[in-house]
């Protein structure tokens, strides 16, 4: 048997459906204003007769989806309460009452309006917020800069004829509402959004009171909804309101003051694709009724942006990084809490995954920004694209490239490693005793002495040449931007207030020079080795798709940033041989030898600049004979980061698949 509450729920639902039906009909006549164009005709008696103006129906913003079409960011239908100038009373006292009634309606339904009037709501009045806010207020209402907060409230009371019948608090509310209309440029060509994403209760009550609340309307809109907030939050970015200082420029592009705009990440750099184009309609109103309407420009909804990343793989990659930090973060006295992983498609440069720790959920960023801002270890920093680190022994692959390509060494060149060498009366050490050793073996066992010898002969000019050929000290070109970092060179040493000595040159040869490299740049180094000197530009956007038909509008084509001109065919053969050898020395649970293909890696443990700690770094690609993925990773203040490589490759195979056929 149905209870009384069940019957009430049914009645409320029926009322809501009826209201939505009425709204649907009304939306044929009432659409949001964005254009400047309006005209008014006046009868001989001086009374308003006809008002003609243009309005726009807002385009729906395009979705952001992963490479398999799973939504990361999409839109949801919401209802906003708006105030339309064409139907709002010109007479101040009537308008004041309507504004107060609207405020109370919303507050009684637990919706608190955001009012920006920088004056306290209780007496004695005082300015709140920044000094700039109070100065802007005084300028807006034509008061001198020395005017007091009480002067400002008195000015509102005078200008808008706010009656003494209102309490002090009600006078403040009306003043604040009037100020809000002013700063948001409330006009025939710009409706004012009173409340966004309101409840059914507010909608029903607002429609019931719409006769007395002149100018109020309920408008269907779309709201940005974060579906997978833990997928690339730094790269996805956010949207937000248009600020006053932005409006002048954005208005030239057809934006209204109440529009939203991409503020960061993909939301910002793909703004023109995602926003679409508002439709324009000409409306004629007479005596508070629409008498004619004509569509001038139809709505063009925003297009869908498809990323190169599988959201499932991205989550797996983030878990791999987080699990490693939890398991090995405190190993051997280290305190590892931070790190980053980057995985690229070796054949195109497309980003397949990019994890950073600590990270955050985009929903938390939007709903509780301060908690993210104040969290330990600055999760707002995307260490994958903006963290700057010494590359350590991973840099030996670059030194090897220069030595081999310039003819300084070849596969039969051997240098003696007796653990220590003296250079300019300074001792330089290796981690082992390697006797006479070749370049491939030196990469495998990470012999410092061998690469000291190569760096001496290559000179700093040669090292800088190959740093630049590998793209270090440069932005990679990824759509959302990254840090260029800096290379080890005499010029950069000077900028750091340092002098580059001969010892610094050979230290640079093993990745211990003063340089700052991002994990993304290291992944590009790995990918350049995998492609034998061809350096692809990394990218995140797979393509643009029509939001209605799903058809591809534009597909991103791989771009080659640079190619290292090879003087000898064998350059990368010897480097790869050494990197494959480095992958064989792994503990059983992390071994890289049972995939059915070889894996090429190089690890490093660079000291930090203050020499008080070390980081753990790796680069690599797989399969070695037919590269499908290239990768890099770093753990701050830790070691054994290479233990993540097996899981990175295994997860990649599960999500994207790895062909084991030999084509290289």
Describe this protein's structure.
The structure is a single chain. The chain is α+β, with helices and mostly antiparallel strands and 664 residues long. The protein folds into two domains: 4-307, Alpha-Beta Complex (Penicillin-binding protein 2a (Domain 2)), CATH 3.90.1310.10; 385-628, DD-peptidase/beta-lactamase superfamily (Beta-lactamase). It contains 22 helices and 24 strands. Strands 3, 4, 5, 6, 11, 19 and 20 form a seven-stranded mixed sheet that branches. It has a five-stranded antiparallel sheet with strand order 13-12-24-23-22, with helices on both faces. It has a four-stranded antiparallel sheet with strand order 1-2-9-10, with no helix packed on it. β9 and β10 (289-297) form a beta hairpin. α17 (448-469) packs across α19 (502-508). The relative contact order is 0.11.
Please sum up the structure shown.
This protein is α+β, with helices and mostly antiparallel strands and 664 residues long.
Count of discrete alpha- or pi-helical segments spanning 4 or more residues = 22
Structural class: alpha+beta
Strand runs, count: 24
How far the N terminus sits from the C terminus, by CA atoms, comes to 73 Å
Instruction: Please write the CATH class name of the largest domain.
Output: Alpha Beta
**Mind summarizing the main beta sheet?**
7 strands, mixed
Give the CATH architecture of the largest domain.
Alpha-Beta Complex
| Shape estimate | elongated
Percent of residues in beta strands: 15-25%
The count of domains is: 2
Binned, the helix content reads: 25-40%
Low-confidence stretches: 7-19, 22-47
Average residue-wise pLDDT: 90
CATH-defined superfamily of the largest domain: Penicillin-binding protein 2a (Domain 2)
CATH topology of the largest domain: Penicillin-binding protein 2a (Domain 2)
Cα radius of gyration in angstroms: 32 Å
């Amino acid at each position: 048997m149905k209870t009384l509450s069940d019957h009430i729920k049914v009645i409320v639902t029926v009322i809501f459906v009826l209201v939505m039906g009425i709204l649907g009909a009304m939306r044929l006549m009432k659409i949001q204003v964005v254009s400047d164009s309006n005209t008014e005709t006046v009868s001989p008696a001086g009374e308003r007769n006809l008002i003609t103006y243009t309005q726009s129906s807002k385009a729906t913003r395009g979705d952001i989806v992963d490479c398999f079409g799973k939504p990361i960011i999409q839109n949801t239908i919401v209802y906003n309460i708006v105030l339309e100038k064409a139907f709002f009373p010109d007479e101040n006292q009537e308008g004041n009452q309507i504004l107060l009634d609207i405020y109370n309606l919303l507050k009684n339904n637990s919706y608190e309006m955001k009012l920006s009037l920088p004056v306290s709501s209780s007496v004695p009045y005082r300015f709140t917020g920044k000094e700039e806010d109070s100065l802007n207020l005084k300028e807006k209402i034509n008061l001198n800069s020395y005017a007091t907060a009480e002067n400002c409230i008195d000015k509102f009371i005078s200008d808008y004829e706010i009656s003494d019948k209102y309490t002090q608090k009600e006078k403040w509310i009306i003043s604040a509402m009037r100020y809000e209309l002013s700063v948001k440029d409330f006009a025939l060509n710009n409706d004012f959004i009173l409340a966004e994403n309101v409840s059914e209760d507010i909608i029903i009550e607002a429609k019931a009171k719409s006769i007395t609340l002149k100018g109020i309307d309920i408008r269907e809109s779309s709201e940005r909804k974060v579906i997978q907030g833990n997928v690339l939050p730094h790269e996805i970015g956010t949207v937000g309101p248009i600020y006053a200082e932005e409006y002048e420029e954005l208005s030239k592009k057809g934006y209204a003051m109440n529009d939203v705009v991409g503020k960061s990440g993909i939301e910002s750099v793909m703004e023109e694709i995602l926003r679409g184009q508002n439709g324009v309609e000409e409306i004629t109103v007479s005596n508070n009724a629409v008498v004619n309407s004509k569509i001038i420009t139809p709505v063009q909804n925003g297009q869908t942006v498809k990323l190169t990343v599988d959201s499932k793989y991205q989550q797996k990659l983030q878990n791999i990084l987080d699990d490693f930090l939890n398991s090995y973060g405190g190993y051997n006295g280290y305190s590892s809490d931070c790190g980053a992983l980057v995985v690229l498609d070796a054949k195109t440069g497309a980003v397949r995954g990019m994890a950073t720790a600590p990270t955050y959920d985009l929903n938390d960023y939007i709903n509780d920004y301060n908690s993210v801002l104040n969290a330990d270890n600055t999760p707002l920093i995307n260490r994958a694209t903006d963290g700057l680190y010494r590359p350590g022994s991973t840099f030996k692959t670059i030194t090897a490239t220069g030595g081999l390509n310039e003819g300084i060494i070849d596969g039969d060149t051997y240098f003696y490693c007796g653990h220590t060498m003296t250079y300019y009366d300074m001792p330089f050490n290796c981690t082992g005793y390697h006797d006479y050793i070749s370049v491939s073996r030196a990469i495998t066992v990470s012999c410092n002495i061998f690469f000291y010898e190569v760096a001496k002969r290559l000179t700093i000019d040669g090292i800088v040449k190959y740093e630049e050929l590998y793209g270090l000290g440069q932005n990679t070109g990824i759509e959302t931007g990254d840090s260029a970092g800096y290379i080890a060179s005499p010029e950069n040493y000077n900028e750091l207030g340092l002098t580059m000595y001969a010892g610094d040159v050979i230290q640079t040869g093993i990745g211990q020079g003063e340089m700052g490299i991002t994990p993304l740049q290291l992944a590009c180094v790995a990918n350049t080795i995998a492609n034998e000197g061809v350096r692809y530009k990394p990218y995140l956007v797979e393509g643009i798709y029509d939001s209605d038909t799903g058809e591809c509008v534009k597909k991103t084509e791989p771009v080659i940033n640079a190619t290292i001109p090879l003087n000898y065919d064998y350059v990368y053969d010897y480097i790869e041989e050494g990197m494959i050898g480095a992958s064989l020395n792994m503990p059983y649970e992390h071994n890289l030898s049972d995939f059915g293909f070889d894996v090429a890696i190089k690890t490093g443990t660079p000291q930090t600049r203050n020499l008080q700690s070390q980081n753990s770094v790796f680069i690599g690609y797989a399969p070695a004979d037919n590269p499908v993925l290239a990768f890099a990773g770093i753990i701050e203040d830790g070691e054994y980061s290479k233990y993540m490589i097996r899981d990175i490759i295994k997860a990649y195979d599960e999500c994207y698949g790895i062909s084991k056929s030999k084509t290289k």
